[in-house]
Amino acid sequence: MIPLGTDLNTSHEELQQAAIDFAKDALGHDMIERDREQAFDRDDWQKCAEFGVQGMPIPQEYGGLGLGILPLIGVMEGLGYGCRDSGLLFSLNAHLWTNSIPILIYGTEEQKTRWLPPLCDGSLVGANGASEPDAGSDIFSMRTRATRRGNEYVLNGAKTFVTNAPVADLFVVYATIDPALGPMGITAFIVERDRPGLNIGKHMEKMGLRTSPMAEVVLEDCIVPIDNRLGREGRGVEIFECSMEWERGCILGSFLGVMRRQLEGCIAHARSRKQFGKAIGKFQSVANRIVDMRVRLDTSRPMVYRIGELKEQNKTAVLEASIAKLYVSEALVQSALDAVQIYGGYGYMTEQEVERDLRDAVAGTLYSGTSEIQRNIIARSLGL
Amino acid sequence: MDPIKESLRSFILAEYLLGESPANLTDQTPLRTSGILDSMATLGLVSFVEKTFGVMLDAHETGIDNFDRIEDIAALVARKKLGQ
Fold it and tell me: Is A247 a catalytic residue?
């Protein structure tokens, strides 16, 4: 195994190793077929809950483990390394950072007590409805309306690219109370799946992360009580950006694990595969690709763990998360491409399970803000 | 010199207009409709106003009418403080 850096202390390394052992043993079976069939594995979801994944950042009083963010990133790295089902990991990340964490940080005591324990123990799957057909990167131009009516809100609109929607039980949905207010009208709501007026639209087939289900969500005169509002009216932008900061930082932990797994696989292949009478790793053109993969991994790790260090100190990490998201997601795509090239024709074959990592990696440059949006955020921090 | 306006001006210059001459940020300079403040910057300014001046702003008070120019924001703060 490629040695870890010095980002984790001994107890955190043990936790990461436990996550690797768990993931290798319990998760990601029958991946070729499930990827083809776009099959989400609810049993694996439950196993993750029993291991504690869904409760990692949630305090014990709400049914979680109360882990700090550094060990949490370490566990994510371990899961990325040990679990070949990147779709499952993506679903877990969506559940954690765009549903559980907003409820933990912005929820009332009643909301936290009601929703966090079942979100931790695996009985509920969380999802997040923000993007709309005409509001993607320009997320705050959303049209979904929340009309106040006494002690209720009436939600109307359509959400797209909703990860977990086909299997989700609880949604955090963003809507505007008044389009004239622009971003300051955006408000967040907790909406249960069985609430009348919430309908799951068509399943969306994807290039990668195919075991993570995605669909549209349509809200049609969906009435939610005022008690389901998450945070203050007009403060949805803050909640959404908080979600993105967590997601951008923590989901990258699993990217590190994938990069380590790919690197080790490529080294082993380059040592054992012989062409022209010698191991292909003895050819500089192959060795150099592997060296570049190693360099990408080693330059990515400090970026990701720096986010954890800042957040452990209760400091903002918006800029650092954007820098890391931009760099690490694009590094993962390049390393996945290199892996396919190192395996040659076999790498292009589904059976080798190398090409799937490439398809899965591409999404990382798109979700949680595209690479272009990350560059915009970084430029803004430079006063540009 | 209005301390509310100067406080707002200092914050906007430090956070969103690095290197800009203070003379170019007048009380009447549009902040949001000109693109100086994007959504996150607007939210940052709302949070700054609430914390600095000890007022709570309703969503409907942060529309373009009340929250696009320093003089409008300062007037809003003054009204809110008067009503406390």
Answer: yes
